[in-house]
Amino acid sequence: MEHQLWFTAILNKIVGSVVTALLTQLASLHGLEWVRPADPTHPIPNYVAMEILVILILIVAGLLLRARLSVETPGEFQHLMEVVVEFVQSTADEIIGHGSRRYVPMLGTLFLFIAFCNLLGLIPTLATPTAQIQVTLGSAVAAFLYYNFHGFRQLGAVGYLKRLWGPIWWMGLLMFVIEVVSNFGRLLSLSVRLFANMLVGNILEQVFSGMIPLLVPVIFMGLHLFVSLLQAYIFMLLPAIYISMAVSEEH
User: Fold this and answer.
1) What is the structure's pLDDT at 33?
2) Where are any strands of DSSP class E within the chain?
3) 222-234, pLDDT tens digit by residue?
4) Same domain, yes or no: 50 and 88
5) Among 54, 81, 177, 242, which residue has the least CB neighbours within 10 Å?
């Protein structure tokens, strides 16, 4: 059993019994034994608790920003968030082009969520949830469903499936299979890249910090910060590319 972080322990104490009851009922009614908690007293694992913590941080930050919005006297936090929004907008404009502002909320949410998840491990007594494949795969599935939904919405079911079929009708079946496999391969591309980078970074930081406790931890913390922001950017950039490919119309 993994060591419970303090925030995980709080969540399990407050809502653990409710979560256990829901998961047990789901497992009993639908035969999904894999959802049944191994430890009924602690059903919420650390990575889920860390995700919830990040979501709470983003919600509180959003509410504070909204309450303090000002055109005449914008604060430092507002300036910082304006920079983030402009960065996401410019990325979307450059990659997607016309109508890109529609996708900025999702791309910005992905960037902020992944960035905060990556950086959470820098805080003592907390952990990096993106060092777990469940978290990165869940985020990749959200991006996968999002860009495919907009592909169907923009081109229609027939138009989107026709694009997967390809321009040469007699090679259509082969191209369709390749495109479908390629689409699902993006799930692995998104999730495994982020998971591997954050997991390896955490392991190296722990190993070298234990061997050389002076100066080295600072170096690896700086590296962790750089990799965290870079991976968050990549996790926003790739879905933007996938959206562009899904919604672009041939002329």
Assistant:
1) 79
2) none
3) 888 999 999 999 9
4) yes
5) 177
In whole angstroms, what is the distance from residue 50 CA to residue 246 CA? 32
What are the structure tokens assigned to 10, written together?
């709080």
Residue 206 shares a structural domain with residue 195: yes
DSSP string, 117-128: HHHGGGSTT---
Q: Domain range holding 4? A: 1-44
Q: Tell whether the torsion through CA atoms of 92, 140, 117 and 22 is positive or negative.
A: positive
CB-CB neighbours of 44 under 10 Å: 23
Residue 139 and residue 235 in contact, taking contact as beta carbons nearer than 8 Å: yes
Work out how many domains the chain is built from and give that number: 2
60-78 as b/e: b if 16+ CB within 10 A? eeeeeeeeeeeeeeeeeeb
